[in-house]
Every structure is written in structure tokens, then in C-alpha cells.
Amino acid sequence: MKPLLAAGLLFMALCAPPALSANPATLYDTHCQACHGPGRMGAMAPALLPQSLERLRPAEVESVIRNGRPATQMAGFAGTLSDEDIRALAGYLAVPPSSLPDWSAADMAASYRLLVDPARLPPRPVHSANPQNLFVVVEAGDHHVTVLDGDRFRPVARFASHFALHGGPKFSPDGRFVYFASRDGWVTQYDLYSLQVVADVRVGLNTRNLAVSSDGRWVLVGNTLPETLVLLDANGLRPVRTLPVRDREGRVSRVSAVYDAPPRKSFVVALKDVPELWEISYDPAAEPIYPGYVHDYKMGEGIAVPGYLNPRVTPLELVLDDFFFDPSYRHVIGASREGRAQVINLDIRRKVAELSLSGMPHLGSGITFVRDGRRYMATPNLKGGLLTVVDMESWQTVKNIVLPGAGFFLRSHENTPYAWADAMMSPRKDTLALIDKRTLEVARTLTLRPGKTNAHVEFTRDGRYALVSIMETPGELVVVDATTLREVAALPMMKPIGKYNVFNKVTRSEGTSH
Ligand code: DHE
Fold it and tell me: What is this model's ipTM?
């Protein structure tokens, strides 16, 4: 090239206006839609709506677009998109779409997959592990689930799950089936006898959690987008009914949490945006008319009795972010994340006490235990680094136990004197505290893998071993003798989050979440 021409081209390049960033909606359609779906509603990859991304900081969203996500199919776009485009795309994803996304009965039906006819499932397990001492381990690192033999600590099966399972998977009363919910609204039924997925359905765009009825007939799923409760047939997951979540004035609300209350034969539902607590009876003999307010939902065919599969409402002063039952299931202990907590009697349907729980209680991880003949509950705190212990008769706080740091989860078992708490939200994320349930003191601390997140404990059915997640990618599942605290096994896993023992769950051990 002639020197003059080269200089001219260089001059033109230097003077040219910077490349304009493309329209972010067009960028989305070109680069993201194939995996993340039209309208950002999710397809083979997760939904990219603000509700789905609220746990990520804007800088993290940019970083994922730029660099991709390890161990997933999300590739980095650093070589394809300019910095401005990446910033514009991240900004676009943070804004709700112009038309409100919905998830209709037709969308649900279109997503439904029955992979095996429940009538053709084998009558007995196809594996040799004790079906009552299996663990289900959720691995968030590469979105898989491991089924683990709880006697031999060996994997029995491993399968790909939907993106971002959240909350505890729930079991059928006999422990044969396990049900998972993903943050993106997918619900999966898995058979622990034949080790296969039975059915799969997307019930919403953003889901809170699910509960399974104690008679094994129903699965109730609480959504935050759209604001609905979806009732599924537990045997094959066919959608039965969608309840819009609205209060008496018609204001819509996201669901905070739904749990099963076995002795009451009902689901109890806390709402995030309106101060109401709902109880939905699945007892066919439920009283047809409840005193007080009953939503009139014009039930579907064959469900004419308003008391059956129909919400009855307890009006509250405060919304509830999460809750916990007492062992009789007559009381709900509910808290807003700001730490205002209340005890609600489900029979007389009103608040009977207030609790002082400072910080940000995480009641879903609460446990109960008996000490000197009295029952106590203990709940971790997402802020403060305190474990609050409450007397369940007087509803007084008896102690705030200082932990190494703020944590998420608490676990114990009838056969161990210790409750194990993590400090995963703090700089001491590698430290577990073992609280003596007799003295309410931290008896000792335990660090299995220094510098790594040591969190979420679950016991074998006999309480002899504690299984701890090393929540890293790659991470490990470490098995510890609950008496000697010696490590007895370690299994490589991809960021194991929660693990759930069939027996402890179906028998509703006092030391585990329900
Ligand atoms: Fe969870 C359970 C709410 C963030 C892992 N979490 C629950 C439950 C609720 C809840 C209401 C009980 C439902 C159930 O088990 O059926 N979680 C919330 C939040 O409000 C919060 C703080 C913010 C949010 O993003 O929703 C939150 N949770 C997280 C996480 O960041 C965790 C650590 C990692 C993740 O996978 O998202 C997390 N939550 C868990 C786990 C359980 C859970 C592992 C089940 C615990 C159990 O042992 O039963």
C-alpha cells in the first residue's frame, strides 16, 4: 500500500465516529433468543426477565454475557459483541418487557412431558440401596442431581436437572417419588425406584417452591410470575387447577412459600405482597363453609365444595416472607425478612403472639428440639450471625447464640445432641458451628475445607453421619462421623447445595426442614 493512501485510511479511521451500539432488543433476538426463548421467557436456557435475574448484580450479568458460565452451555460473547453492546444488553435484561409476560394453561399444556406411564413403573427398586436411606443432592455447579446411597456413600444415579433448582425437593409420603422445582417454573417428578424422570411441566415463569400433600395426591406450586398457585396431580404432574393469587381487594401477590400441614390435610401458603395467610384443604371431607372469609373461585367440575381445594384466608397485619410450623401444626411462626415475626393460630385464624427475631430470619431452615421437657425452635439469620432460640410454649426468645458469622442453614437430628449451623454469608464461610442443644452454647467449630464454603448439613436416617456441602465448582460432599467428627468419605461434586435424606424427610424429623 502506498504510504499516502495508508496515512489517509489511518486518518479516516481515527476521525470516524465510534461504532454505534446495536439496538439491544435486536441483539437479544440475534444472539440470545435461540436458547433463552422469545420474549426472554426461557427455553432450553433460563428465562432472562428481571425477576429471574434479581439475584445477580448488573456487573455479574455483564460478566456472564462477556465470559459465559463455566460448566454450562452459556458461551462468552466477548469476541462477538463490543463492550457497549454487552452493557446495552445487560441493561435491556434488567428492564421488564413492555407487555406483561403471562403463562397460560395452554403454555403449561405445551410444556408438559410424560416420560413414563406411572402405571408401568416397576413395583420395587431397580437398585440395591436402602430406599429409605437415599439422599438426593442438588448440584448447582452444572445443574445436576445425584441420588446417593446413604449406607455406602456411593452415587446410585446422576441426572441433568432444570436450571437453578431451588428450595428443598419434596418426597411422596412413601419416599418413592421426589419432586423438584426450578426458579424458572419447571416441576419434575423423579422415581427413586426406577431412577428415571416420570414427568415434567413448566407451571410459571418464576417459581418460589412446591409442597406435596400428605396423602400423596397433590403437588401445589407457588409462583411469583405470574402470581399464581398451580395444583398438579402428583402422579404424573398433570395440571389440575390454577388459582390466581389475589387478596380481597383484588390486589395480586407473589407467593412467599407453600408447605404441607399433614395433620390438617391442608397446604398453607404465605404471600409476599398482601398481608394474608392462606390455607387450602385437600381433605375431601373438609367443612363446606368456613367461618370468615373464603375466596369464591368458582371451582372446576367435580369440586363443588368450597372448603375443598379452596383457600380460606387469615388476614394479617404484616406480610410473611417465610414460615415454620409448630409440631402440632396448629401454629404458624412467620416472619418478614426485616425480622418482624408473629405466631398465627390456624384454628382461630389470628395472630396470638409476636416474636423478637432480629436481622433476617430464615425460618424455612428452622428446627425444633426438646430440652428439659420443653420444646424450642431455633432459626438461623441471614444477617447478624445469630441463632435465635424460642420457647414454643411462651413464645419468648430464650437465647440469641452468637455464631462465627451469618449463615443460611441449620440442621440436627433426634440422635445427636448438636445442631449444625453454617456461616456461609460471612467471611467465616468455611466454619460450621456445633451448638449443644442441652446448653445452648457453641460446643465447637469445624472447618472441613479451609477457605471454601462449608454449608448445608443433612444427617443419615440414624443420625450417625452428617453430610456437608463444599459449595464450590468443583466442590465436594464430605461425610463426617457425627460423634467423633472424623471425616469418613468425600465425593467430588459440582457445587452441591442442599441434600435431603428420604427417611428424615418423610418422617418429618424434628432436626430437618419440611
Ligand atoms: Fe433459598 C429453601 C427463600 C436464596 C438455597 N429458600 C428456601 C425456602 C425459601 C427460600 C422460602 C423454603 C422452600 C422449600 O424448601 O420448600 N432463598 C429464599 C430467599 O428468599 C432467598 C434469600 C433469596 C432468593 O433468591 O430467593 C434465597 N436459597 C437462596 C440462595 O442463594 C441459596 C443459598 C442458593 C440457591 O440455590 O439459590 C438458597 N433455599 C436454598 C436451599 C433450600 C432453600 C438449599 C432448601 C433448604 C432445605 O434444607 O430444605
Answer: 0.97
